[in-house]
Amino acid sequence: MSPFSIRLTFHGDLPFFLGSKASTVERQLSEKTSVKDVIEACGVPHTEVDLIIVNGVPVDFACVVDRESSIEVYPVGTRGITPFAENRLQLTEIRSFIADGHLGKLVRDLRLLGVDVVYDPAAEDRQLVTIASSENRALLTRDRRLLMHAIVRHGYYLRSQEPMEQTLEILHRFDLGSALAPFTRCLRCNTLLKPAKKAEVFDQLEPLTKIYYEQFRRCSGCGQVYWSGSHFAKLQKRIETIRSRLTGEDTT
Question: Which domain holds residue 55?
């Protein structure tokens, strides 16, 4: 096969992955190559791509490029391309996630909001991608190599390194605003909390807690007990800040 050239144009915020201000990339190929591999060779994980148009025709990741082509690559959230609405490649309303070991603070925020996030700081890359695939979870990471694994169907590369901004990124990307349920999930192990009678958790309480508090919830997984103690107001404030930032009504 004779070498041929392709031209890729990355739209939206996808040039973020290219390492330059340019949004267009020229490539020379000498063999048939899947469009997924072509895009990821430019540094853009397939999980960030929602629409691919090759020579004016929408395609999926399995499409093989074997001749000179013009490829338009669009991220999730791109508007104004209604003719190709049925050709979108990513789901937005995902409700289950797995995070890599460097995102502990993000995980705490998401669990505080009631979002289902599996997290093990000691998990290896192989475990992360396997769980993401087998449990149909979106993989959250700042390692783009993880997102390029073929078995990873859904995922997101965090742009920010700041936990609050990361939390907002996830809520926006996966349209989680209406699905939040604060104080319903264990911050330690991710299991849902259940109401518990004081007598059932009495032996786990500190002396002053036994005196001043009557309402409790207990994790049905690890047994951790929760109540509206002195820390509760701080957590509520963080939730309020996240909600206001999410709706564009930040008052901080």
Answer: 4-87
